[in-house]
Design the sequence.
């Protein structure tokens, strides 16, 4: 079900691009495009700060109330409250530092924006430190005038999109 949802969202996103994914330029409503991309940049900075600050509430606040998040080797997490609880639990044993999110493509259609990007984090668990990097797809949706993550999925150790 989750793969079907993600595949459908990806196909819808690709269908909306006028010249394929490489044409991730503003569409007819440039003001909305600038608003969305600015909100995504701000959201990504908050995302990184929340990870580094062990702030599960701030992290979950980036997500829509009915959001879905999918991480490798983990069950699908549904809903902002579950995302917050999951991150609070993770922060008990994992520390994040040097968090970087880089958007490589963004496209907007109405109240939905699609973002492809790469991530890199340093994580410390117990006495081990490792580098975590890969790519992600985030679907942002305007909720009550504010851009929130509606769905996201990550793919570790993957090349840039």
Sequence:
């Amino acid at each position: 079900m989750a793969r079907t949802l993600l595949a459908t969202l990806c196909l819808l996103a690709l269908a909306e691009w006028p010249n394929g994914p490489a044409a991730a330029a503003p569409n007819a409503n440039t003001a909305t495009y600038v608003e969305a991309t600015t909100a995504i940049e701000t959201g990504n900075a908050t995302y990184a700060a929340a990870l580094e600050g062990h702030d599960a509430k701030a992290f979950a606040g980036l997500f829509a109330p009915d959001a879905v998040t999918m991480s490798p080797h983990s069950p699908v997490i549904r809903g902002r409250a579950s995302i917050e609880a999951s991150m609070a639990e993770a922060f008990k044993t994992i520390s994040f530092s040097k968090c970087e999110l880089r958007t490589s493509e963004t496209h907007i259609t109405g109240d939905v924006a699609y973002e492809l990007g790469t991530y890199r984090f340093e994580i410390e668990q117990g006495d081990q430190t490792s580098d975590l990097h890969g790519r992600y797809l985030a679907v942002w949706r305007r909720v009550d005038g504010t851009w929130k993550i509606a769905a996201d999925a990550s793919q570790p150790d993957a090349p840039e999109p």
